[in-house]
Amino acid sequence: MAYSPPSPREEPELEGDYRPADPANPGAHLDPANIRVKTADVAYLMQLADALNTTLDLETLLRRTAELVRAVIPYRIFAILLVNDRTHELRVRFQIGHTSHVERLHIPMGRGVVGQVALTRQPVLLNDVTTSETYVEVNPDVRSELAVPLIAKNRLIGVMDMESEQAGYFRPEHLRLLTLTASRIAQAIENARLYARVSRQAQTLAVLNEIATELTSILDLNPLLERVGQLLRRLIDYQMFTVMLLDPTGETLITRYAWRFGYAHAPLRRLPITSGLVGAAVREWRLVNVPDVRKDLRYLPMNPETRSELIVPLFHKGRIIGVLDLEHTRTGFFNEEHERILTTLAAQVAIAIENARLYQAVKRQELQFERDIAMAREVQLRLLPPAVPEMPNADMAVRFLPARTIGGDLYDFVDYGPGRTAIVLGDVSGKAAPAALFAALVSGIMRSAALHRPEPAHLLALLNDALQERKLESQYVTMLFAVWNDENRTLQVANSGAVQPVFCRSGESVTVRAEGFPLGLFPNVTYEELNVATQPGDAIVFVSDGILDAENAQGEMYGQDRLSGLLCSRRDQAAQEIADAILADVGRFQGDQDRFDDETIIVLRVR
Fold first, then answer.
1. Is the pTM of this model over 0.90?
2. CB contact at 8 A, 141 and 165
3. Rounded to 5 degrees, what are φ and ψ at 562?
4. What is the mean pLDDT of the chain?
5. Sign of CA dihedral 505, 507, 508, 511
């Protein structure tokens, strides 16, 4: 808008309701010159209000204010300085015509013209700066200055300042206009700052929520710490960042991740908690914010560029596990908002670190367990006979498929003297490693008892007594012990609760009804013994309950009828082919169902 300020002799009052200056002449305020001034002021203020009411962005607001003021006061050097609520100093927030170094100035209250205006809350019009004791020279070409306070709700928020290279450039009407502007813009600036603060807080909360969600999904410690540093930069523009974790003794901090000026590195640095600012944060269980580390005797000069440092302890379940350490090259960089952000984030980081540590510990245990299982598997396989015995009148084969890496089934072939071989098939209670260990115990006791070659029923009784002496809670074993006499083609069978053998002759199947209590459950148990006479072409199969109890998708069990039918249909084949056929048929029957028990098959075919 075009505005022509009145001459000094026509200057109206700065404030008030335009009451006449001379009470004796009540019509003085109706002077046409005064009316023109008031009309121009009203138009200017309306235009200013429109500009202020259309934005809540502080940068836009300050720029529009500068443009409107220039329309009525043709300045060359202009600045709006705002008060830092933490340091109570003035800093240039917007400027035109100044050199860039002015934006880095911190002006204390009372220093210079703007400092004096801020301190007294009174405007200053200085026609010749060289005659003023309060003037501090920043630009040697400046000769006159005009500054007014920005006050909103009786609270000083800043100063609006103009300078000119021409002495006496600013006139009283300029002061009046700038004062009118300041009274309107102060509240607009405060609203914009409040809006920016609320928006920033909302954004911070959104980022913190995003960080918390993402951190819980990272279970590897090194990538986790690196990601913490990356995400934290979205909230705090630090220049150096370090994560230090306490060692198991709780006496030493160890650097686990460090970031310096855009590059990550993690030097193996160990620091006792009795020294340094990080040590103080651990010892005192509190946040440490040092505006200037050069003035703090606790500081250890690790990075010569550091000026300000912010350290927050990481708490988890009532103990400190480490610290987050932020550094900056500018003094007083970290403020209360940074403290709140870092404290909030530290709680999430501590949980994520402990989760990652727990996951790594579990992973190490799993790897160790897998190595132990592999070794146990190797030991178990070495306990099993490497090959089936070869005999003139009998063809034998065995197939063993554990439900897991190692199983609870055991089988063995024991030399029982000339022409005699003991066939052993057992199934211990339980699964995996405990079952395999118990199976090894049973196998050792059985082989020791078999050295004297007792009859099958007597051997089972001896084995039961030995397990009673070494009784383990809820552990038992079912076992079928049969002695094959190759000379007369007979089989002596004793059973302690194992699956009964199936005998096939001339296409007809018969179950060998040998029964008995499982070994290790009851003391002083006796077992019955059956003698089976065979003929050439007969086939006998010994299986563990994993074969008969195998289930398909409909919940049906494989059962003895299918086993008997398959055995008789394949009785003319070699023992190895019969065993393979049974195992393959059980696999087809199960389909995609998980195998829940060990599967062992021993086939004896009479030549």
1. no
2. yes
3. -65, -40
4. 86
5. positive
